[in-house]
Every structure is written in structure tokens, then in C-alpha cells.
């Protein structure tokens, strides 16, 4: 029966073809994202609370769309947590996918992204951007002397405190803990909360203690390790004591930004370390016990002089695999240098803009305090290996802070790892 | 295949078909192979290729994403001498043993309950299955909120104050196991219920006539007959539990001695990428899970795997 053999062969062929089609479909989708939909739609991969519907990033996108109907931009909402945002972007970029045109890049990812060839160099528009942006934010967008992203928003840690429970903001960490412990006990709430879960935010919090005690990680051009184990042990010991003595609220060691904000907003803590975005949210929440009863201050230090904060924020980079590079570059330059979106960040969401001129024109407490502390804010090294360093610091220091591991040994582990990154 | 042979018997012309095919064209066996070939090919592409590719990758050394040369078994030596690997292994096995044991006992209870005839049985069955229908990450996030100090639902209900379930070793493991049991006990119940329904009611009835009490009927009649279903349920759950990722990632992020092997693998594949080391870790994990799976398959016996078990 020859016919039967043909049927078998045809059947096999159809099955094999069917198995191959999903791949073909995928390609079609990718093309659609990049250039389809009747024009050059851009996709902006950014995460966090402000990227959600109604958030300020959405408003910035809408503003752009009004002015540029030919190249509208759409936000691809990434997770809230920075580590997970980076993973989402990495999955797309590692596969050289053109699904994202503009990337919201955390200040610490610049080195890694440029090393991997994931982002377009912005050297052609460098002067324009450098002139307009805050120096710290601009630096965080460069690696190896080249500009890889356009600054978008910067960030620094604030000390939030309850004015109905505390007279004035403490200037040293010890003072903070004393006040926190006594006030918390009399008010029946928690003392201080920050970002103490095992993730990047923990490293940021730890570094603020370490830096404010005079410690450094590297020298300026990152050729030498300046990690001081004595200062590191001191900072770690302070945090460990703060947990065991009840200065830190019980949820500290599982809290990220949002749980910390919830605690403060619900009136469950006296003090909080958090980013400026919280200010607007608590101010709008008239049902919150903290509403109208809180103020912001620079973070304390160990000596009581000056302040130090880890520099945060997001820059907008252009994906190297974008199908719409020119429009994407136009967008990131616009978002960095145009007063309209930059002012919007400050007025709509207390997200600190990177455009210098905005700070001169706005007169609100958040921007005033930022103007005061941003010059002293320290960037984490934006090196390609920062994520490895951060994970190692989390793994060594988080158990030590929680009394599960020896502090001396933990800081020694960190020093050894840092030395291993220099070759 | 039985179908193919019996179907044409009524028709005289078709009856000659198979005989002629055997002489001239492809034999039925060859034809069967031919028909299976595409699916085998697809399976090889999507399942076998990645496994082999991971093994190949694990033999190279990398600096972050850049390949720096052939490393032989270096990645494996590094992994097996790393304390972190062993603590992840320890957590993974602790998690597996405790969660599967609890899921089995609770699942068996549910299955026996659902197998009875009583008023509202349909509603009970549906209600028991609800946790299983909820996606794991959502269940994990939910249990995070339940256990965590803020908002602290469990602490509120039981008046435990600010007990930090997720913020200390031991209790963090307990919380993760608890969430897993809540989520997957219904799945075990479902598998066991299917097994229970293949047991003819005459068996237990005759036991009843012979004067066996409820416990004896369960121990000497139901459980031995349920053995294949139990083994299948345990196999599924054990292999699944050994790969636990989402619960840990959402509830603790691996803090407080709750880092599982999959979380560790994910770190080296995605968070701080080192494809060589990550592949070595995932290959080791694969071998561990395969070995445990093989033990179960052997216990199940070849006949059941081939598919005759259902007829017993």
C-alpha cells in the first residue's frame, strides 16, 4: 500500500512543521513589539511603585506621548524589587531580544550592562546631558569613562521621625537607638525600621552605618581595597545590638522598602530609614497616624557630624537590541534634560529629579533636604561585579547582624571577597 | 495498538490490508516507530538537549557571562567544597522529607474523607482543592503576609505579639514547610482519591462481612491496594519538593538557613551569572533528583510503570 506510506510521510512532515511553528510565531511577536502597531512604539522597561498605573513614570510616559504621537512609549511594568527588575531585563537582553527599547537601569548596574554590550553608548549626546544633570547622578551613568545611560531620577536615604513622639531628629546612631528604645516602650510601638531583609537594600542600609563610621570599600578608581574590618565589625555590632536590644522594630530583618513604609504609615514605628518617595504618600494619607505628625532629617552618623547616604536612583539606558534606537535616544535625553518631566518627578511623587535647575526652582521640604544631603551621598561602586559583591555581603553580614554568625569572621569574609575582585 | 488491530475486522477488504502491509510495506511496529518519532524528536529537542547543553556548559570556566576557557571538573570541585552548597542541600532535604510526610498524611485523610458518600460531598471536594488551584507564588506571597511581623495576621489571631516567624532560623523553615503543605496536600489527596476509587467496594464489603473493624479494613485492605497510587503521589511530590524555588524566593529570599538548591542555582544562572558554575550546580541538582526519582520508580515496579498497574 503505497498510499499509506505517503500518508505516514505526510503526517510526519506536518508534525515536524507544527513543532517548528512556535519559533516562527515568536519572531513575529518580537517584530510587532519593536516596529509594528502602526509606527515606532517604544517599550520602557521600568519597575517599582511609581511605574504602576497612576504612578509618576506613567505620567511622564503620557506627557511624551502627547508631544510625540509618532513614537509613543509604553511602560512594561517590572517587579517592585530592584534585583528582580534586573533579572527580568537580563533574561530579555541575554537572549538579544528587542522587546525593550528603554531600560530603567539602577545606578549600580551601569558597569555590568556596558560590559555585556546590552546598552547603547550615549557619548554622542554626552555634553547635553552632563551640563544639565547633577554630578553624582551623571557619574553613576558612566563606566570606564563612557556614558551609558541618561540620568532620570536620583535618590538618597532620609530619616523619617514622628514629631508627636520625638522633639528633634537625633544626630548620632546611638542617640537614635536610645530615643527609639525609650519612646517605643512608652508609646507601645516599634522603634526604628529600615531595610533589613536579605537583599540589596540590606547592603545599602549596612553601608550607611559603615560609611558614616568612616569606612570605605575601594579607592576612587577601584584599584585598591580600602575595606576596614575594624570599622565594619563596629557597624555590624551596632546593628546586631540594635536588633537584640529592641531598637529596631521586630519586622526589621524581613522588611524591604514597602513593608517599612507600611509600618511607618500605620503608626507602628517611631523612626524609619527610607527613600524620599514615602514623604508624599504619608502626606496624602489622612488616615495615617503619622500624617501631619512626621518630619524628615538627614541620616545620623556615629560622630554626630555631617550625614551620609547611599546614592540610589534610576537612569534610562537604550537597549543595544532595540529596533527603534533613535527614538529611544530622543526619549532618554528628553527625560533627562527637559524641565517638564523632571519637575513632574519632584512635584507629583517626591521622586528626586536629576536635573539641577529643578532644585533651584522648587521650594518644598523634600527637595530642600535633598539639596542638603545629595552632595554627601555616596554611590555604591557601579562595577560589573557589584552584584556578586552585594550577594556576598548579604550572605556574610545578614546572619552576623541577626546573631547567627560570628561578626569578626563575617567582615573578614567580605574583605577577602573584595580583594578577590581586584586583579 | 489493540484498536488498530480490532477495528477493521468487520470489513472484508480492510481485513486483507494489514496482512499485505506486513509483506510489502512497513510493518506495524515500524509504522508505530515512525509515528512516535516526531514526538520523540520534539522531546529530545526540548528536554534532552538542554540537559546535555548544561552538562557541556558546566565544564567551562567563566568570569561572569564571559567564557574564559575549559575548566574540566573545576566547577564541580568548587561546588562540592562550598559550604553553601551543603547547607542548601541540607535545607532542601529537610524541606522535602517534612513537607512530603505531612502532605501524605493529610492528603490520605482528605482522600478517605472524599471517598465516603455523605451529604455535601461535592462541596467538600471542591473546597479541599482550592489551595491547590492557587498559583504557588501567590500562595507564597499570601503566607508571607500571614507569617511576617507586618501585617502579622497569624500573630494577631493567636495573640503572639511580634513573633518573627520569618526572621529567625528554624521557624522560617517551618513557615515554608507549612505553606507548602497547605498548598499541595490537596494534590496528594486528589491522586490518592483516584487510587481509592479503583478499589472495588466488594473488597471492603467482604472485609466487613468477615468482621474486620475500620482500622483493620484500612490497614489490611485499603492501604495495600492503594500502594501504587501512594508511590505515584510520593514520587510526584518528592521530585517536586526537591526543586522548591518559589516559596523560598518569595517568603525568605533564602535568608535564615532556608536557601534551597534551586535558589542557589538561580543565583548563579540569573542574579550573579556564571553559566559554568550555575550549570554545574544544576547538573548536581538534576542528578540528585534523578537518583531519588529512580528509587521510587524501582519501588513502583516495572509492571506499573509500563501501565499494567491500573488493571490490578
Automatic annotation (TrEMBL), chain A:
Q: Can you provide one Gene Ontology molecular function annotated for this UniProt record? A: maltose binding
Pfam families listed in its UniProt record: SBP_bac_1 (PF01547)
Keywords carried by this UniProt record: Signal, Transport
Could you give one GO CC term from the UniProt record?
ATP-binding cassette (ABC) transporter complex, substrate-binding subunit-containing
Signal peptide extent:
1-18
A GO biological process of this protein is: maltose transport
Q: Which PANTHER family match?
A: MALTOSE-BINDING PERIPLASMIC PROTEIN, MALTOSE_MALTODEXTRIN-BINDING PERIPLASMIC PROTEIN
Tell me its family: Belongs to the bacterial solute-binding protein 1 family.
Protein name (Swiss-Prot/TrEMBL): ABC transporter substrate-binding protein
Amino acid at each position: 500500500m503505497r498510499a499509506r506510506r505517503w500518508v505516514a510521510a505526510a503526517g510526519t512532515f506536518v508534525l515536524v512543521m507544527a513543532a517548528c511553528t512556535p519559533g516562527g510565531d515568536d519572531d513575529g511577536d518580537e517584530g510587532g513589539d519593536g516596529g509594528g502597531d502602526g509606527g515606532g512604539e517604544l517599550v520602557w522597561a521600568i519597575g517599582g511603585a511609581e511605574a504602576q498605573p497612576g504612578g509618576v513614570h506613567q505620567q511622564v510616559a503620557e506627557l511624551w506621548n502627547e508631544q510625540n504621537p509618532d513614537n509613543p512609549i509604553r511602560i512594561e511594568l517590572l517587579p517592585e524589587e530592584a534585583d528582580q527588575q534586573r533579572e527580568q531585563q537580563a533574561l530579555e537582553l541575554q537572549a538579544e531580544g528587542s522587546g525593550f527599547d528603554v531600560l530603567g537601569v539602577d545606578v549600580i548596574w551601569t558597569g555590568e550592562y556596558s560590559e555585556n554590550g546590552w546598552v547603547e553608548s550615549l557619548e554622542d549626546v554626552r555634553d547635553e546631558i552632563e551640563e544639565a544633570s547633577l554630578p553624582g547622578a551623571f557619574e553613576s551613568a558612566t563606566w570606564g569613562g563612557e556614558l551609558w545611560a541618561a540620568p532620570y531620577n536620583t535618590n538618597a536615604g532620609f530619616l523619617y521621625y514622628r514629631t508627636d513622639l520625638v522633639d528633634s531628629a537625633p544626630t548620632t546612631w546611638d542617640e537614635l537607638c536610645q530615643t527609639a528604645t525609650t519612646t517605643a516602650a512608652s508609646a507601645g510601638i516599634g522603634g526604628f525600621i529600615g531595610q533589613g531583609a536579605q537583599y540589596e537594600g540590606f547592603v545599602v542600609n549596612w553601608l550607611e552605618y559603615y560609611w558614616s563610621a568612616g569606612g570605605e570599600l575601594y579607592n576612587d578608581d577601584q584599584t585598591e581595597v580600602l575595606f576596614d574590618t575594624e570599622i565594619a565589625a563596629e557597624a555590624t555590632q551596632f546593628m546586631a545590638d540594635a536588633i537584640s536590644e529592641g531598637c529596631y522594630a521586630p519586622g526589621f530583618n524581613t522588611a524591604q522598602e514597602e513593608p517599612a513604609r507600611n509600618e511607618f504609615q500605620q503608626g507602628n514605628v517611631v523612626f524609619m530609614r527610607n527613600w524620599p518617595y514615602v514623604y508624599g504618600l504619608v502626606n496624602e494619607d489622612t488616615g495615617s497616624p503619622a500624617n501631619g505628625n512626621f518630619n524628615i532629617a538627614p541620616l545620623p552618623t556615629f560622630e554626630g557630624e555631617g550625614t551620609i547616604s547611599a546614592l540610589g536612583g534610576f537612569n534610562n539606558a537604550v537597549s543595544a537590541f532595540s529596533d527603534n534606537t533613535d527614538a529611544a535616544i530622543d526619549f532618554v535625553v528628553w527625560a533627562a534634560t527637559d524641565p517638564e518631566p523632571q519637575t513632574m518627578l519632584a512635584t507629583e511623587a517626591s521622586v528626586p529629579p536629576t536635573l539641577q535647575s529643578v532644585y533651584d526652582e522648587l521650594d518644598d521640604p523634600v527637595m530642600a533636604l535633598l539639596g542638603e544631603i545629595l552632595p554627601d551621598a555616596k554611590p555604591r561602586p557601579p562595577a560589573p561585579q557589584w552584584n556578586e559583591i552585594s550577594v556576598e555581603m548579604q550572605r556574610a553580614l545578614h546572619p552576623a547582624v541577626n546573631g547567627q554568625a560570628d561578626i569578626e569572621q563575617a567582615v573578614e569574609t567580605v574583605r577577602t571577597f573584595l580583594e578577590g575582585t581586584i586583579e | 495498538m489493540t484498536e488498530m488491530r480490532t477495528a477493521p475486522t468487520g470489513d472484508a477488504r480492510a481485513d486483507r490490508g494489514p496482512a499485505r502491509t506486513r509483506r510489502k510495506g512497513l510493518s506495524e511496529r515500524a509504522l508505530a516507530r515512525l509515528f512516535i518519532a516526531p514526538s520523540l524528536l520534539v522531546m529530545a529537542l526540548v528536554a534532552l538537549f538542554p540537559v546535555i547543553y548544561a552538562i557541556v556548559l558546566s565544564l567551562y570556566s567563566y568570569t561572569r557571562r564571559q567564557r574564559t576557557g575549559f575548566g574540566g571538573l573545576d566547577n564541580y570541585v568548587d561546588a562540592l567544597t562550598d559550604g553553601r552548597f551543603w547547607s542548601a542541600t541540607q535545607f532542601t532535604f529537610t524541606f522535602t522529607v517534612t513537607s512530603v510526610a505531612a502532605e501524605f498524611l493529610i492528603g490520605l485523610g482528605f482522600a478517605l474523607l472524599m471517598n465516603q458518600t455523605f451529604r455535601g460531598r461535592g462541596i467538600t471536594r471542591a473546597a479541599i482543592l482550592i489551595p491547590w488551584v492557587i498559583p504557588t507564588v501567590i500562595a507564597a506571597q499570601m503566607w508571607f503576609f500571614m507569617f511576617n511581623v507586618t501585617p502579622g495576621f497569624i500573630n494577631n489571631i493567636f495573640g503572639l505579639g511580634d513573633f518573627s516567624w520569618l526572621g529567625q532560623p528554624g521557624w522560617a523553615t517551618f513557615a515554608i514547610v507549612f505553606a507548602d503543605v497547605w498548598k499541595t496536600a490537596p494534590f496528594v489527596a486528589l491522586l490518592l482519591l483516584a487510587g481509592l476509587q479503583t478499589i472495588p467496594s466488594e473488597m471492603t464489603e467482604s472485609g466487613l462481612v468477615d468482621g474486620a473493624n475500620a482500622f483493620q479494613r484500612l490497614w489490611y485492605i485499603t492501604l495495600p491496594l492503594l500502594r501504587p497510587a501512594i508511590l505515584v503521589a510520593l514520587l510526584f511530590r518528592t521530585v517536586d519538593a526537591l526543586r522548591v524555588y518559589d516559596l523560598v524566593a518569595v517568603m525568605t529570599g533564602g535568608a535564615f538557613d532556608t536557601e534551597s538548591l534551586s535558589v542557589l542555582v538561580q543565583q548563579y544562572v540569573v542574579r550573579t551569572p556564571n553559566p559554568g558554575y550555575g550549570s554545574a550546580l544544576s547538573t548536581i541538582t538534576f542528578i540528585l533528583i534523578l537518583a531519588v526519582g529512580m528509587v521510587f520508580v524501582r519501588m513502583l515496579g516495572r509492571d506499573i510503570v509500563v501501565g499494567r498497574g491500573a488493571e490490578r
